[in-house]
Amino acid sequence: MQPLDFSTVIQTLTQNAQNVWMPHFFPEVVVCVTIVLILLASICLKRTARTTFALALIGLLVALCGIGSQLNVVGSGVSANPGEYFGGVLIWDGFTVPVRGMLLLFAILALSLSGSTMKFGARDATDFYTLLLGSTLGLLVLAQSNNLLMAFVGFEMASIPGYALVGFQRHRLRSSEASLKYLLYGAAASGVMLYGISLLSGLTGTLSVSQLGSHVAAIGSQATGATASHAVIFSLLLIFVGFAFKLSLVPFHFWAPDAFEGASAEVAGFLSVGGKVATFSLLVRMSLALSGSMTGEAAKLVLPLGIGLGVVAMASVTFGNLAAYFQKNVKRLLAYSTIAHSGYMLMAVAALLVLRSPEGASSGIDVKQVTQQCIEGLVFYLFVYVFMNIGAFGLTALMRNHFGSEDLEGVKGFGRVFPIHGACLVVCVFSLVGLPPLGGFWGKFVVFYSLFMASKISTFMMVVLLVGGLNTVFSLFYYIGILKAVFLGEPREGSSSLVAASSENGLAMLIALPILLLGMFPGAATDFASEMARSLVR
Amino acid sequence: MNDFLFVALAVIAALGAISVVLCRKVVHMAASLIVALSSVAGIFFSLNANFVGATQLMVYVGGTVILLIFGVMLTSMSAKAELKTTPIEAIAALASSVLLLLVFTFTVGSVSWSEHFKLLAGDAAVPKNLVEQGSSSFSSVALALVGVRTDQPNAHSYLLPFEIISIHLLVVLVAAGYLARPRGTQQEADSTAE
Amino acid sequence: MTGDPLSILVWLSAIFFLCGFLCMIVKRNVIGMLIGVELILNAANINFVAFGQLSRLGIDGQIATLFVIVLAAAEAAVALAITLVFYNSHSTIDADRGESLRG
Question: Residue A294 pLDDT > 80, yes or no?
Fold first, then answer.
């Protein structure tokens, strides 16, 4: 080892911090500072729920502005600088910057929702917002990590506050039970994932995601490649268990209905969307790293991996929709719909892997362009999903506040008493089904189109496409069930005198409006999404 | 001598882990866990990873396991309560463990590591001396944690996780504090604050 | 199985993983299940240090282990708090007793 000059080390570090790290990592630093400020304010200032909320909101808005100033990286065509940064553990390019923006936007929505619908004391508010921001920070790190260890740290940072958030209503028996179940399954899933990471890093000799592909290819091309490749597949499966848990995919979905029913609707909305955005971002990056440039033994694995993801996606979609049909509780129903939606999104990743397999390269399709379409569809879907799922859970929270119930029986007539809420619910629910002209339609459309392209390489993808399409039709029935209860049922006596606060109406419309806009004018958003995809797949 | 110690530690660790599963009382499980984790720490020492071994002893054995034992003491009405396993569970456990063992044998277990790394070491990206001597130096670990890699200049350095985990610990502290706070006092505190 | 220290350690970690996994299935007590999680995390730790010291993962292995130890401690703290809340409301820590929510 060379002798180290201490002052040079310090100098390099400060230079890096000033020129590279701080400008690019600014939003996350703001979130960290906000967490500390909230805790300090709760000690020094006279604490009210309102000041804490304002602090958290300002912090997230500043962070979002920070992302906004970086957005010009998308579509600039030049290779993004600095690419890998912070010692290589994070990556900064035209894909991660908008994904972080999406996460922050989503955090702002979840925060304003819980600020306006949850009623808690000042002391609880401090804790709640701290946990929410802490979890958001974990998601932000997870979404841009370029290192498996960093990804695990982000994964845990996002999950552990989540366990506590589910159990936040300590007075409810179900809440503590739900958080315990979520914790046990979550801890097991992250442990299995970590074991997979340890095996994979041992086999390849690296923790870096971007170098994963070349290292796996090197393993596959050597003499002992066959057994080692099997071991790589095994470790990838273990890692996928962690992802599948976070995305609530079948067969690792069983926590979702329990956790969402036990948690408050706001928290359920937060958990259902945030984890998906960040995890899919990492999953896409890993899938791209592992496909495309494979040779030898390792190349044979790409197509089976894609088909395997397709099977998981089909199972999730079918199971989620079937189980949702029998639910009486709105939050449980939405939980099963969440499982189904993860399945739809996973179809895009499955199509991506099939397209980038060696079979795809020899099929004469313009793989690069179609792969970009897969990612474009996924990103668009996620973006709409942020709004429609937060909207659906937020309106469930309003049902709870006004009608004191979250059961389909108990919320009868909600849409008649509160016409604006009802209208917003219609938008969210129809968008979840995927009816035109709403945002959800285009999300599903692009994903199904990429499946269609993938079916030219493997006919199995046609089966996936058919199952997805059939399920979309089938899901209409249970979503309609919500609307039927809300609009056709007779309101309870005395409920007609209830009045919604104007802030609630405003927030509901603020969430529903983008869904409508994205549905009617998808052009700008899809262009942006395809620019993001282009910076990922060159 | 060293080899003998190494194998002995590995055997003790494995026996500890197996007895964790076989013990029926939670306290005995925790005790076996301590045995298993301490011998793992011993293995770390014998692999020249001294700092990690010490951390394993202090934080894991001395902290986390004690936390779990606290959990036993605070919750179970009698620490002697036995956990019974139903036959169905036992069969399911047996079947899944046999399955997992088979998977291990045919994937990770059948990789011949020395061959694997001999071939991979031809890879230009990897300095060979690392494979041969095993980096033991604590200073390179410490420097990697503050963002400077001295052993492999192009490898990742871990300043960010090192720093951001402090925020995570803060958030975890808040979470645990919230959950453990008695319910009655919180309303009083709120009424005085507002 | 050969006398190669690396393959001994990989098998040791496989045993740890298997035992942790079995703990999660067989034990009904929450603390018992958490002990299973600790075993799984330690299986990963053994792998990390073994690959780090005996193959080409380098000091990344040691660093990963350090982070895992810290995260495990944090997770155990929250797990204990949640277990206590559950115990206070249900007077038991049998994970099967929670009957009101059924996945």
Answer: no
Q: Does A37 touch chain B (CB under 8 A)?
A: no
Which stretch of A92-96, A159-163, B14-18 has the lowest confidence by average pLDDT? A92-96
Domain count for chain C, please give it.
1
The DSSP result for B40-95, as a single string, is HHHHHHHTT-HHHHHHIIIIIIIIIHHHHHHHHHHH-S-TTPBPP--HHHHHHHHH
Q: Which has more pLDDT, C99 or C103?
A: C99
Q: How far is CA A74 from the centre of its chain?
A: 20
Per-residue model confidence as pLDDT tens digits over B28-84: 999 999 999 999 999 999 988 889 999 999 999 999 999 999 888 887 655 555 666
- The answer to whether the peptide bond before residue A419 is cis (omega within 30 degrees of 0) is no
Distance of alpha carbon A370 from its chain centroid, rounded? 23
- pTM for the complete prediction? 0.93
Q: Is residue C20 part of a domain?
A: no
B190 occurs within a structural domain? no
Residue A417 has pLDDT above 60, yes or no: yes
As beta bridge partners, residue C94 has C29
Q: How many domains does chain B have?
A: 3
**Nearest to C34, CA basis, from A363, A356, A163, A295:** A163
Phi, psi at residue A145, to the nearest 5°? -80, 145
ipTM exceeds 0.90: yes
Q: Which domain holds residue B18?
A: 1-75
Euclidean distance between CA atoms B37 and B40, whole angstroms: 5
Q: Is A456 helix (H, G, I), strand (E, B) or coil?
A: coil
Alpha carbon distance B166, B110 (integer Å): 40
Question: Nearest Cβ partner of C4 from B47, B90, B113?
Answer: B113
Bridge partner residues of A312 (DSSP): none
Distance from the B172 Cα atom to the nearest Cα atom in chain C, whole angstroms: 6
Determine, for residues A130 and B177 on separate chains, whether the beta-carbon distance falls below 8 Å.
no
Contact with chain C for residue A180, Cβ under 8 A: yes
Q: How far apart are CA A153 and CA A148, in angstroms?
A: 9
Helix (H, G, I), strand (E, B) or coil at A90: strand
Set of chain A residues whose Cβ sits within 8 Å of the Cβ of C63: 149
**Alpha-carbon span B55 to B34, nearest angstrom:** 14
State the first-to-last Cα distance of chain B, in angstroms, to the nearest integer.
Answer: 70
E strand spans, chain C: none
CATH code of the domain containing B6: 1.20.120.1200
